[in-house]
Amino acid sequence: MAFKNKERYYPLKKKLSFEEYKIFREFPLVKLGRNKSGVLVEVNSKRETPFGLLANRTIGLSREFKDAKKIAKKQNVGLERSYDTVLSGHDGQKLVRYIAGGTAITVEGSQTEPENGKDVFTTVDVNIQDITETALMRMMLQCEGPYGTAIVMETSSGKIKAMANLGRRPDGTYWEDDNYSLRATEPGSTMKLATLLSVLEKGTSNINDIVEVGSAGRMQVGSKMVTDAERSPRPSLTVKECFAHSSNVGMSKLAYKAFAQHPEEMKKYIHRFQLDVKSTIDLANVPKPTMAPLNQKGSAEGNMLWMSFGYGIQVSPLHTLTLYNAIANNGKMMKPYLVNCIQTNGVITKQIQPVVLDENICKADVIKYARESMELVVTEGTGRRAFAGMPFAVAGKTGTAHVSDGAIKYAHGVYQATFVGYFPADKPQYTCIVVIRTRPHAASHYGGTLAAPVFREIATKLYAMYVEKKNPSMYAAKKDSSGFFYAGNAQDIKNVYSTLGMNFLDSVAQSNWVSVYADNYKTVMKSANVRQQVMPNVRGMGLKDAVYLLENMGLKVAIRGRGKITMQSVAPGTSLAKGITVILELS
User: Fold this and answer.
1) What gap in Å lies between CA 258 and CA 344, rounded to an integer?
2) Are residues 131 and 113 in the same domain?
3) What gap in Å lies between CA 186 and CA 189, rounded to an integer?
4) Average pLDDT, 10 consecutive residues per value, the chain (587 residues)
5) How crowded is residue 379: how many other Cβ atoms within 10 Å of its Cβ?
6) What's this model's pTM, rounded to 2 decimal places?
7) Are residues 320 and 228 in the same domain?
């Protein structure tokens, strides 16, 4: 049949395993070689993913196929595509001449040895990836949205420690079918960080300025009617509170004040924050963000206003994460990257180092105010409910974008829920973003109810496993030959010192709680900072004072040991919610 159809070759067997191939090549006919036997062998290599679903789309895949002209081609995605030439290696070659009897003799100097592909080692931590993938999967199965993505970045370096991408399949299950972390969409309220940084950096507003947002949930700003997704708690908010409560009215009024005369000036800040250029991550085919024009008469002002709260501009979750990571990193913007090093036969041939994209994206005080604003989101703003009772402090921003993208229109009721932030808030080690696209007219579609719980689960598990453990010595006073440290009620301690006739340096003022310690052989009494809804430092106190103070703050107290308090399970300065339990260790 093949001869009649004038086909030059006839396939004997497809997809032989390597073990089967080794047996086949020992057949007498095959051993004669391709010229005498006519047997041709097509070798196909396959790259396996030993961890299955974990980071499957980020690592990528390598597929070979034949096009309409029967020409073999390769289709790669992810790191498999970006580093295909590094991973592949190449076959060996030699030029031969045949002598009498059909013996093949290699032509001297023509032989090249085969070379194995190199090994690419990624920055992805399989444990962090598992935590991230599991937390995202749990929420996706609950909300049944079309897709979701979550990225964890090491704050100081820009290393991507996890990148999860889950798309819904026709049977209702989820798989890593596309890299949604690179897909550019309208971000919604997470864009308000760029607006906040812009107006503070330009100097048209200060962090404690009062902004009139009204009580109706909507207000005319310039030529546009702007609506808030949720009513403001008060008719007037500070700039910081506009950000924390995610007021579209408030943020658009700040942008109008700064850029109404020259809307195109806003683009300068967007470029400064690298929100209008391709992400520099080491992947191929990274899409470029898009934004509405800011230089066209008649539409520039409106586009600028929409952009101030996350519409009219399309950026990827990775862009948003990179900007927020810069705030966590005290203004230093790091390049995100996925490959740690390249090795050949176990020897490192290329070590990838962290790259700084911008040493200071804003002035130091602007970064400080931005961090304070993101902490307020969690303690008093739109993230308050999701993070109530957290055992450590986090900072971040919620985002809820009403989607109009391609075939999806606003009338379809599809939303994109986001939470992006970092932890611990005082000394960030990880920055994380969670983005979930909802199904049409989903009852729950806010960033604070869909994305923030995923962030919370990731942060809680990473904190327990990877964040540096708190050491009691970090709270200890500087010691001398008669060193000591204790704390308690101010009047009680003063009475003891007066009765014993002991001198001390008093810097207590009107405080009810104090700490007493030795400094250069002198006894110093200093006010203890005690605020509502903020965990105090009770180390050094007696049990009576500590229990009285903490229970009056609405906390539950568990006790281990006897003596003075040496350790507390909730770090000083952490935002509190009533009813959480604090474990005190005494010795």
Assistant:
1) 54
2) no
3) 9
4) 67 78 82 76 64 59 53 56 60 68 67 69 88 94 95 95 93 89 95 97 96 93 92 93 96 96 95 95 89 91 95 96 97 94 81 94 96 96 94 95 90 95 96 96 92 96 79 45 68 80 69 73 73 83 86 85 83 78 83
5) 21
6) 0.69
7) yes
Q: What is the CA radius of gyration of the chain?
A: 31
Q: Which structure tokens are listed for 529?
A: 């900072």
Q: CA dihedral in degrees (230, 235, 240, 245; nearest 10)? A: -10
CB 174 within 8 A of CB 141: yes
Length of the chain in residues, anyone? 587
Whether residue 114 is preceded by a cis peptide bond, meaning omega within 30 degrees of 0, is no
Question: How far is the C-alpha of 231 from the C-alpha of 445, rounded, in Å?
Answer: 17
Q: Total domain count for the chain? A: 3
How far is it, in rounded angstroms, from Cα 84 to Cα 460? Answer: 36
Residues 423 and 343 in one domain: yes
Together in a domain, 440 and 498: no
CA dihedral 130, 134, 135, 141 (to 10 degrees): 160
- Measured at the CA of 203, the angle between CA 199 and CA 204, to 5 degrees, comes to 65
Amino acid type, 118? K
| DSSP single-letter state for residue 575 | B
Q: Nearest CA to 569 among 544, 537, 545?
A: 537
Question: Residue 566's domain spans which residues?
Answer: 474-586
Q: Using the structure block, give the residue that is written with the tokens 């658009």.
A: 252
